[in-house]
User: What shape does this take?
Amino acid sequence: MAQKQKCPEFENHERWLVSYADMVTMLFALFVVLYALKEGGAPAAKEPNKVLAASVADALNMPLPEIPVDRKTAPTQTGMGIFDHFKGDQIREPLSQKFPSSAMRAKVIEMEINRVRLLVEERLYGPNKYPEKGDKGFERVVSVQQTQNGFKLQLAARHFFDSGQYQLKREALKEMETVGQILMELGRPVVVEGHTDNVPASGQFSNWELSALRAASVAKYLIKTVGYPATKVAVAGYADLRPVAQNTSEAGRTMNRRIEIHVNYDQEATAPEGQ
Assistant: This one.
């Protein structure tokens, strides 16, 4: 006698809907209760409703267990959530802080330009600022000039580099260190730019390479020797594309061979404390 075959059991793949429906029903019931508590009812029922509402509010706003202020110390205070009390290991300066006004911005720039000019004169030239009669005085190889976005220190390349070279001269390192210390006291981000004349470089580098390498050499010295924060230094090379004088004369070409250290003040810059 042949055995009867059992019908295959039906497998329900939507069993999760039962739990989901239960959760939705409970949420609906909760909101109905909360709505009823809010609306009140008969005058006699208002007082118990207030008590129940207060109990629910206390339960929903119950503080969490004590949470440490940071990861390195023991619990010290009660909080409402871990993100309110757990701190990172480092505190960074805000990236976007504005001057209170354009007038304050202009005042800060003018004050800092005058300060840098005074420091350059005192530390680089000293008593040679006003040469004696008949004496040409100390050659000015660093000048401070205002720009549209702030100001710049312009360095004569002939004094700091040999022709066609990008390494700083040994005899010019002291002056470069002085410039770096002045900028360190200011504490603002800087952009180091390299510039050349329009005469093709005679060495192994093109004017593009030479301008960029000289700017990088100055930036490296500021960071490695002076201790300027690397995050506040940027480098750019412009070859002969931004001349400050005509390249038709030797005097003009000499002026165009330069390093510029720009201190820019945009609307997001931060005014130093105490100024």
About this structure: Residues 71-76, 267-275 have pLDDT under 50 and may be disordered. The longest strand covers residues 150-156. The chain has seven helices and seven strands. The CA atoms of residues 40 and 46 lie 6 Å apart.
